[in-house]
Amino acid sequence: MAPNNRFNYSNFTDELRARLSVLDVVGRVVPLTKKGQNYWGCCPFHNEKTPSFSVNEEKGFYHCFGCGEHGDIISFTMKHNNMDFKAAITELAAQAGLKMPDYKPRDPNIVKREESLFDICEKAAQTYTEKLFTPDGATALAYARNRGFSDDDIKKYRLGYAPKNNIIANKYAQSKHLIESGLCRRGDYGMYDFFRDKLMFPIFNANGKVVAFSGRSLDGSEPKYINTSDTDIFHKRKTVFGLNFAREGIHRANRSIIVEGQIDAIKMQLNGFPETVAPLGTALTEDHIALLCKSNRNITFCFDGDGAGQKAAARACDIVMQFLRDTSDVKFAFVSGGKDPDEILKNSGSDAMRKIIDDALPLVDFLWDLANKNFITSTPGGRAQAEKFLDNIVDKIVDTELKKHYKQEYDKRKFQNWQSWKKEKKSIDVKLPDIDGITKNTLVYIVNTYPELAERYLDFLGTLGVDFDATANDLNMNFEAAEKYIVSLKLQRYLEKLNSKKQILMNKLLSGDESVRDEITNIDADIKKYSEKLKLLITL
User: Fold this and answer.
1) Angle, in degrees to the nearest 10, between helices 286-293 and 243-253
2) pTM for the whole thing?
């Protein structure tokens, strides 16, 4: 019965193998040490003192050179836990967070439809490639060459051109699954091509089969890229662009580089970084990282240095934590100045890009910087928020020993760097009166409860000489009331300053210095203006 089960569950077991690394499964019960490309430990299936049990993460297999046991995550779970096939995949499904499918033989019609979809995509790729080198594709070909693609590059990546007419709809009209392929849609007047007047980039699955396409506009219209919608053979969340070309590069470089777009990935591969890949038309997902970790757990994320790039890096950091092992080397590189890897390679060359990659920030430092940028660690409240942020994200590390060392590292950094409020007080022209106890208590409460307000009004709060590390009674003050309190205090202090300055100038005027009269007039106007603002603020 087992062979039939294996056949019937074939899609699901493929999903399990994609989600769970053999290193994850075996490493739960066998201590492993990396030597060369493999991991080694003492075999769980026979007694031994010298490790002869080898695990190859990239291939997804284990093998014992002592007793000959070998297999994948399913056979390991079956033998180690003394389970049958269905119980083993149920156990693995729980580890992977997947729902077990209903037991059904694979529908021959589904198998046939998938084969048809592969066939349609392959034929479309051939048609687009042929069109690129015709007069119709002249603009697309010129664009590709201007972007630095040689004819050999075009051939390797199978670039093509989708003409303005409905070439696919007309040429393959007899196909039953043309619309399901995502290549065509149905309108009021029949089928029409989804991709028209586009430079075409075939999308390959990990085995090198064409499963979808990405089309680049040539007339400046937005969006610049459109991608095939998800189909039975293509899922954006589970497809890593360029992985079929990058496998060997990842193996040789002992890492993968993840960039944001497909052209960046291709240009990186062509300019000395063959280990580069990209997500496709979607944000980075757990499935993307799981797929890459089957080849290698060393990853360098390379994003734009702008706000969007920083946000994408923070998301990547959050996702990658569960995949970390003590042998992982995860880093973050940023391309600044509004440029992307393609521009850097084109204008500054591979050496400049290599420096950006070589200077990438290790994950432990990137995460620390993230905590310090997002929270005001100069205040107790901000430090508490930053500490919770670090604890929450570090808790996602599965390896308990590695998790412990991350926490120890951050405990050391917190002790060394998160000292009490040390902002330099700015010098002021007029000495302001001391803060009374009620005002002190109120400000300490606000700063510790709403650290974002402390950051917003830092320059003003730093002039008050208040110890913000002190404790304060709970005042049950909401954010709006707290901000109003700071602003009103700031206005009061400024009015005190203006009145003090006016008094000094009045003494000069009484001594016969007529040159200060205009300045006194201006100060009076300011006093009136800010007094009205304060009155309005208090009445709101």
Assistant:
1) 50
2) 0.63
